[in-house]
Design brief:
mainly alpha, 2 domains, Tetracycline Repressor, domain 2, DNA-binding, homodimer, Arc Repressor Mutant, subunit A, disordered N terminus, disordered C terminus, elongated, 207 residues, 69% helix, 10 helices
Chain lengths: 207, 207
DNA sequence: CATACTTGCATCACGTGTGTTGCATGTCTT
DNA sequence: AAGACATGCAACACACGTGATGCAAGTATG
């Protein structure tokens, strides 16, 4: 499916010169790296970072938009894989929550630009994938409620957005090769317990 | 102080033609409005939104950068005012926390672009203000810990970043003129309690 | 070795945004 | 009414990024 995948497979099965599709991958990786630092980077900068000429980039991607779309599509797929591989619909809620968090953190630190890119209506596939992941997340939260892990009175969508924000924040911290597992633990812990002291303690003189 | 403020006061005290500084304000407000929707908006679009000619904008702001700096400085000041007016160093922690949240949410919904703009090293004043607010926030959290509102074992800076993220998320929701007070309540509640059920309940079969 | 293919390089056209300038017009002050 | 000042408008030069093209050189395939 998806024009992109077809293109890649077609190139892959053709026993041609050598590394045409490897060039594509190199360009995309370099683009992600550079764009993460400067979202307004020019095609020339992306090409230089990839170690190829600017014209070569244009040979692979007709327009700059096409390159960006390719990136977002790729990131979206990695995102979905990270979530799905944590068995969010099968594993016990807390386990799944932790596993999903850790997996997503791993990919998000490496694809910060492409993943934060709002897939708008420009890239319908990425939009669909993100919507699907969102639904999976809500299902997981719903299961968590039933299991007594999450409070029954919370707004699931608000909780999901908070969850995303926490992951985003943790990913920023772990950009420099941090410990993904401890970050995931912190994210889940913060999501579940917050930062407040358990109610009914001594110092509760605040209000 | 700050070149900017001097300029404004100078213009204000001069009983000149009429609304020169009002024009400046109009332009900045329009710029904020437009840039919030499209950060890459051109000077022409900003001018049109402000109801003036593009050349007039250039008469007030030498370069586009100057305009953006002005915006960020203005927003930073509003930000600091919103925090300070909540008496974060004097009021009881919980009260201050709620008040700060509500105040910041109010300004953030109206200055989403300028406030999210990282003041880098380009605008030293804005950077200083943000650093100051950050310190105030940490102090408030520290007081909250001593008062038993926040757990003693949490990372204050991580908590601050989570707090910022929650406000950011709530501001997105309230952009369309939402109820600031209820949003503030939700933010504080989420920050303190998180989304998890109190430990030691029945369904805690997650792990 | 000959062929097919890709790459790099230089170049060009094009569009767009920026910043400047000169001039005519309008408006407020004195 | 006269002067001072700000505005709108039109035009301009300039820089930059994009996308396309032609050509020479290198490399793998037959």
């Amino acid at each position: 499916m998806t024009a992109h995948k077809q293109q890649m497979e077609q190139q892959a099965k053709r026993p041609l010169r050598a590394d045409t599709e490897r060039t594509v991958q190199t360009i995309l990786e370099a683009a992600e790296r550079v764009l993460a630092a400067d979202p307004a980077a020019t095609m020339g900068q992306l090409a230089q970072a990839a170690g190829v000429a600017r014209t070569t980039v244009h040979r692979r991607f007709a327009t700059r938009e096409a390159l960006l779309d390719e990136l977002t599509g790729w990131a979206a797929r990695q995102f979905a894989d990270a979530v799905d591989s944590a068995r969010p619909d099968a594993a016990p809620p807390l386990v799944a929550l932790y596993q999903v968090t850790a997996n997503v953190l791993r990919v998000k630190t490496d694809w910060s630009f492409a993943m934060n890119r709002t897939a708008d209506d420009a890239h319908p596939e990425a939009a669909r994938i993100h919507a699907e992941v969102r639904a999976t997340c809500i299902r997981l939260f719903s299961r968590s409620q039933e299991a007594g892990v999450l409070r029954p009175d919370i707004d699931l969508d608000w909780t999901r957005r908070v969850y995303y924000a926490l992951i985003h924040e943790a990913a920023k911290e772990g950009a420099g090769g941090g410990d993904t597992d401890s970050l995931a633990t912190r994210v889940v812990d913060t999501l579940l317990r917050g930062a407040g002291a358990p109610a009914g303690l001594a110092g509760q003189t605040g209000i």
